[in-house]
């Protein structure tokens, strides 16, 4: 009886072999992957808020909305209403470094998520809420002027922050549609620095400075 030897085919050097060709993604799967990629690119993974890139995208739209509203006011010869305005609110947490040192980074992360939960619960879908990095947050409150935001701060946001044991320093200004995104953010951040100085002189208590127009 002759001996039968099984001969296995061995890929030559550099040859890549696949068992089966990949099936093309369905339209639904592709759309899901694209949405997930977009979510990752525009949102902060820790808090779920917008990140800087997502904030810039929506803030640019808000500035365009204000410009259109102002143009409509001028065209129809009536005064600009609150809908033609928006307010930027920039803040960071007081003594956040001490929070990390006493509770650890996990404790600091929980504090940041708590702030994000408060902000999400105290804003509307038309507002923009973002974590800019570290313990810095920014909100753009659409269709508001400084007077209405002062009321919002005193009756809604401040009590919620106090209840959560959260101390912040904040700078607030009306959005200037003729300025760039960076210029508007820089203005609010500069005002926030003044609030931080006041806070340090008052035992790191919550402070907010409103820029009067």
Annotate the secondary structure layout:
Elements: H1 27-42, H2 52-75, E1 86-93, H3 96-121, E2 128-133, E3 136-142, H4 146-163, E4 168-174, H5 181-201, E5 207-210
Parallel strand pairs: 4-5
Antiparallel strand pairs: 1-3, 1-4, 2-3
Quickly describe the structure:
This protein has 5 helices and 5 strands.
List keywords for this structure.
single chain; 213 residues; alpha+beta; Alpha-Beta Plaits; five-stranded mixed beta sheet
At CATH's second level, what is the architecture?
2-Layer Sandwich
What is the element string, with H for helices and E for strands? HHEHEEHEHE
Shape by Cα distribution: flat
Distance between the termini: 104 Å
* Overall helicity: 40-55%
The fraction of residues assigned to DSSP E strands is: 15-25%
CATH class annotation: Alpha Beta
SSE class: alpha+beta
Contiguous helical run count:
5
Instruction: Give the C-alpha Rg.
Output: 26 Å
Number of domains: 1
Walk me through this protein's architecture.
There is one protein chain. The protein has a single domain, classed as Reverse transcriptase/Diguanylate cyclase domain (Alpha-Beta Plaits, 2-Layer Sandwich), CATH 3.30.70.270. Helices cover 49% and strands 15% of the residues. The chain has helices at 27-42, 52-75, 96-121, 146-163, 181-201; strands spanning 86-93, 128-133, 136-142, 168-174, 207-210. It has a 5-stranded mixed beta sheet, sandwiched between helices. The longest helix is centred in the middle third of the chain and has 26 residues, at 96-121. The chain is flat. The termini are far apart. Residues 1-7 have low confidence and may be disordered.
